Request: fold
Amino acid sequence: MSVTATSDQGSPLRTLFFLSCSTGITAETLGHSLMTQFESTPYQQVTVPFIDSFTKADATVREINRVASESGLPPVVFSTLVDPRIRRMLAATDCVFFDFLDAFIEPLERELGMESSHTVGRSHGMVDYDSYMTRIDAINFALANDDGVRAEHCQHADVILLGVSRTGKTPACLYLALQYGLRAANYPLAEADLDARRLPAVLEPFRSKLFGLTIDPERLHQIRNERQPGSEYAALERCRDEITRMQGLFAAEQVSFFDASTMSIEEIASQLVQLARIERRI
Reply:
């Protein structure tokens, strides 16, 4: 079981359990999406993946009941458990139980006129070998072309991200690979590139694949200062200067770009896919 506390403000913490017979990723994703609508509620998170036996289920039952007894608040449980017998065990604990599968599977069975397979782990398992290998290939491509795309790889890239250091290029590329199966590379614009106000020669033939990420200078200063406190690299004036010159380069070279200052990695990736007008590969 993994526990993550999210508030130290002194308010009573509500405990959220994410239960799954597989990785727990789906339960966490759906549960977190719901909890974003209740920002003022402090909570701690307990994720229990791979509940694939009655022994593990029984241990989880005891843990949920212990938390309820000690906190005086029934935990909120988000479940994607497939086995109906195990679901009933967990639902009978001292908790508020939300079953994502029951909420959607039964209506789908009625609509489609067939029963679901009740197979464990299909959403995050290696169900489609080709898609899985596409994802792995895209991840390897992103890692091989991080902070400087190779000339021989440019023609194989789906997108090439441009930006100064710490604008979010690397995590965006990895997310595009992991969630979309896209080959994404990134090129960090150096002082010479900013001074020249023109694209590096290696990128010239691939203008249609180029997209820029910009960021508010204050935000960039904050990010860099966390990495290298008090350094010239993190100085606010330098951040302002780099962003100004970078945007000038984008304008001069007609490179599409957008401000990612307040965007999550998911939002950056979605925006890039729309701008590039490319289809996901997985």
